[in-house]
Each structure stands twice: as structure tokens, then as C-alpha cells.
Amino acid sequence: MFGVHNPETPFKLLTEANLLVQLSVPELVEKVLSRGEGLLTSTGAISVSTGKYTGRSPEDKFIVEEKSSSSKIDWGAINQPISENAFSTLYNKVLDYLKQKNEIFVFNGFAGADKKYMLPIQVINEYAWHNLFAHQLFIRPEQGELDGHSPEFTIISAPGFKADPEVDGTKSETFIIISFEKRIVLIGGTEYAGEMKKSIFSVMNYLLPEAGIMPMHCSANVGIEGDVALFFGLSGTGKTTLSADPNRRLIGDDEHGWSANGVFNVEGGCYAKTISLSREKEPQIFDAICFGAVLENVIVEPNSRAADYDDGSLTENTRAAYPLEAIKNIVSPSVAGHPNTIVFLTADAFGVLPPISRLTKEQAMYHFLSGYTSKLAGTERGITSPQATFSTCFGAPFLPLPANRYAEMLGEKILEHNARVFLVNTGWTGGEYGTGSRMKLGYTRAMIHAALEGELNNIETVQDEIFGLHVPLHVPGVPDEVLQPEKTWADAEAYREKAVELAEKFRANFKKFSGVAPEIAEKGGPINH
Ligand SMILES: Nc1ncnc2c1ncn2[C@@H]1O[C@H](COP(=O)(O)OP(=O)(O)O)[C@@H](O)[C@H]1O
Ligand SMILES: C=C(OP(=O)(O)O)C(=O)O
Ligand SMILES: [Mn+2]
């Protein structure tokens, strides 16, 4: 649909090698096992460990500085430039490296479930398990859909190839490079499979706005009435967990587009965090980890091959990848109408934001732009405990264009479809990280349930004195005192100090949005005292 065919054809350059194209799940599982890449576990999932890189590596991510895209990119710490020369040298080295391999795995499929906006993609992998991951996470072609399939973006992942920063222009042995002109994502040095899915998300964040579609870092599900809900949030805030709901059909757990027709999933699978996973608390996800699923860095008991989800010894960022169909109640294909409820998930490490509050239109814009949350342990290299961050659109690491571009689109959509917006703190309560505790999942689920059922539409709220948020006094299934952060802290003065400190951070951060309508900054943010 984006009309540009991949001008480079890495696939053709690789014909000397042994290309294994479009292997089925059982064939890939056999390859993973026979090549010694992973183990079979007691549920039939395969388990792999990724070595040194167990989360994304944002410092090693680059965009090629090219004429056709350069002026559009929001260059900076997130979108770091690399020269065309450096890219093509590395690209040729990676291809030469892959040509030496006896087996290379190729998946052809799509990103974007709405047929009108589907992006044909190709994933070329050094490892069988990465190709299985691609098969489960991206959209699998249906019968006949590959006739004439011509990739408009190609991912090449060669983790065994290590760059030499001195000569290759990278920062380390690892690199994740997007060339929008050549339509290639080149990955080396890291085995963390999440880089592949999040690279295609970055690509969609570049391509979709040009087609008038809003790309979103959110999960989505739909109720029996056809009511669609979106859950925005940075990694670990609960998108996957909270969108898996027995009463609602899942559209997708992480990446969506919102077009004039409604929302659609970018992907064909889910990528759940599995730390402390239990059937009791998260039954849908627990049961989805069956044959064909991929467990990353989960410790497996050597004899019984049972996964020990409580063991975080390799990383807190243990993961399971499985196709959407592994969840029982899904929408297929993953497209639905316009959302009427939008939830912003924030994991507040300060422990001062209310567990749920209803946002005015100005607050919705303010909080979307601010994207206040925490980076949770393990998802990015070097993050070992929750770190407060302002991540615009709750997905700053994946946005190649300036933030306002996305925020304006959301603002228009919220107004046009009159969606109600809630801010939900899935992070800390009763104190900051270290003294307080993580919000109970059962309470968060009850609050989300009430919000989605419209039970919070016309109820009594109290306005939070520091952030100006409208907090419900009662939510079915949640003790009243849990709803008011100051009541959960042992020391009210300590609470106030922390809250004021966070409000200051909000203000300081918001200064960077100079072009924003003044009423958003004035009416959307913390109250001036
Ligand atoms: N109150 C809560 N709400 C949501 N998730 C919670 C909560 N408390 C603990 N968790 C845990 O936090 C993690 C959320 O991860 P996940 O849903 O995969 O996030 P995301 O999809 O946004 O990256 C899960 O391991 C979940 O069990
Ligand atoms: C996979 C990731 O995020 P999420 O948990 O949001 O899917 C990630 O940030 O690497
Ligand atoms: Mn997720």
C-alpha cells in the first residue's frame, strides 16, 4: 500500500546460501532443537536464552541519514544518525557473513491487519528460533496471499555478526539500523527478539502518519457491544496483561494503527512478560504458552522442563511470544471500530498518582504528550530498577517523527470520536518504589472493568490537589482508601513532598512542548499552587 517496493533485494543476494523459506511451526521447532538453539519445555513451547542482551539496546539503534527521509526525522538521542556509507559497508559485511551459513531462515508475511494498509515484509534470520518468533509475532500469510508478495520492508537479523565500533561507526558490537530509503532493518550483535518487532513498529510509526493513520503503542480489545478500548503504556505497564480479558475479545497486545475506519493490529502475535506469571492471575497468557510459543530467558527445570516463571536470574524481562490464536477470545482479522475508551497506563515509581482518574480533554493531551511513567527493570539495557521517565505518547523509543505529529493526531481522534480517557497507575502505591508496593493486579483489573463498563461515567469524583486529576470515590471491588494515594502513605507529609516533586518534574518536562495550545499546558497539568 505504501507503493515503494524494496529497492534492495537482500534475499536475491543470498541465493548462494541455503535459504529455508516459509518453514512451518513444526519444521522451525525441529530446527531449533536439532541446531541446539533451544529446549522443548513441558507445555510444548521452546525455550531459549539470549546471552548478553536480554532487553532492547536503545543506544545501539540508528536511522540512516538519507536525503528522502532526513528532514522528517526527529534526530536526537532516540533517533541517532548513521551515514549511508557506514550502513552499506555493514550491510555488505552482514550479507557476506550470512552467505557463509549452511542455513538461513526466511519468513514472508505482513505488518498491519487492515488489508488496505498492509505492509508486506520479509524477515531473514540467522537463527531458526528468531524465524519462529517472526512467524508468531508478525502477520502470517493466508492461502494465496504470498502470490506476488514483494517485501516493502526487509529485516535482516544476524546476531552472530558483531560490529567493530572503531571501523563500523556503531557504538558497540550491536546495531539496529533502519534505512527508510533502502527499506531495510539491519540487526547484528543482539539476540533479543524484541528488537525485530519493535523495529517494524518504528517503521510503521514513520509510514502510517504519511497515510493519515495514527500509529499507537497500545493494546486493544473489544467488548460484546463492539465497544473498543485502547491501553497505551510503555513496556511493563500492563498492556499485554490487561488486554487479555475473558470478557472481551483481544485485538492486539502492543502495536496498533487508527485509521478513518477504526483500529487495526500491526502484528499477528503477542509478546508477554512472564516474570511471576501464574495461571491464577493471568490465565489467558499462561495457557497461551503452548506448542509453537517461544520463551526467552525463562529458567526451565532441566528434568521436568517446567518453566519457573518466578526465577528472574537471567533477567526480569523474561518473555513469551505466541500467535494471537493462542488466546481463546480474539478478533480475527484483528480489526475493529473506533475506540470509545482510552486508558493511559503509567507505572508511577513515585507512588503518588491515583490508581485511576478520569481525564479532561486537556488533561488527556497533556498526559499523552508528557508520557510520564517508569522504565521497568530489564526492558532496556542498563535499567535494573524502575526509573521515572517522560516518554512521549507512551512510546518515545519508537517514534521517528516529532512527538507533536502523533499527539495532534490523537487529539483529533479523541475529539472526533468522543472517547473517554483514563489515567491508570499500575505502578507503586503506599510509598515510592522501595517502600511502597506495586498496585495489586486484581484492583487494577476491577478499576479497568468499571471504566470499560461505563460505571465511572457519572460518579462522584474528588479533584486531586496537586495534579488536578478527577479521582472516583468508589470503584466496585476496590477499597475506597486505595483510590486516594495520600491515604495509602503512612506519612501524609512525605506523600505531599513526593507529589510536589513529581509535579515539578511534569512542569519542567512540559517546557519542551513549546508549540502546544496554551490551554493544554494551563488546564491539563498539575495545579499551580
Ligand atoms: N497492577 C498491575 N497492573 C498491570 N500489570 C501488573 C500489575 N501489577 C503487576 N503487574 C505485572 O506487570 C507486568 C506487566 O507487563 P505487560 O502486561 O507485559 O506490560 P506491557 O505489555 O505494557 O509491556 C506483568 O508481569 C504483570 O503481571
Ligand atoms: C518488547 C518491548 O516492549 P513491550 O513490553 O511494550 O512489548 C520492549 O520494550 O522491548
Ligand atoms: Mn506487552
TrEMBL record:
Return any one Pfam family short name.
PEPCK_ATP
Q: Where is the protein found, in the record's own terms?
A: Cytoplasm
Binding residues annotated for Mn(2+), in chain numbering = 198, 217, 254
The function of this protein is: Involved in the gluconeogenesis. Catalyzes the conversion of oxaloacetate (OAA) to phosphoenolpyruvate (PEP) through direct phosphoryl transfer between the nucleoside triphosphate and OAA.
Principal location listed in the UniProt entry: cytoplasm
Residues that bind substrate: 56, 192, 198, 319
Which pathway is recorded for this entry? Answer: Carbohydrate biosynthesis; gluconeogenesis
Reaction(s) catalysed by this chain's protein: oxaloacetate + ATP = phosphoenolpyruvate + ADP + CO2
Keyword flag Secreted: no
Cofactor annotation: Mn(2+)
Q: Which InterPro entries does the UniProt entry name for this protein? A: PEP_carboxykinase_ATP (IPR001272), PEP_carboxykinase_C (IPR013035), PEP_carboxykinase_N (IPR008210), PEPCK_ATP_CS (IPR015994)
Give the family per the record.
Answer: Belongs to the phosphoenolpyruvate carboxykinase (ATP) family.
- Class of the enzyme per the UniProt entry, highest EC level: lyase
Entry binding sites for ATP:
198, 217, 233-241, 282, 319, 444
Species whose genome carries this gene = Neobacillus piezotolerans
Biological process (GO), any one: gluconeogenesis
The family database entries (Gene3D superfamilies) matched by this protein are listed as:
3.90.228.20, Phosphoenolpyruvate Carboxykinase, domain 1 (3.40.449.10), Phosphoenolpyruvate Carboxykinase, domain 2 (2.170.8.10)
For this entry, the protein name equals Phosphoenolpyruvate carboxykinase (ATP)
An annotated GO cellular component of this protein is: cytosol
Q: Which GO terms describe its molecular function?
A: ATP binding; kinase activity; metal ion binding; phosphoenolpyruvate carboxykinase (ATP) activity
Query: Which top-level group of life is the source organism from?
Result: Bacteria
HAMAP family per UniProt: PEPCK_ATP
Instruction: Report the co-factor binding details.
Output: Binds 1 Mn(2+) ion per subunit.
Keyword set includes Membrane: no
List the keywords (alphabetical).
ATP-binding, Cytoplasm, Decarboxylase, Gluconeogenesis, Kinase, Lyase, Manganese, Metal-binding, Nucleotide-binding, Pyruvate, Transferase
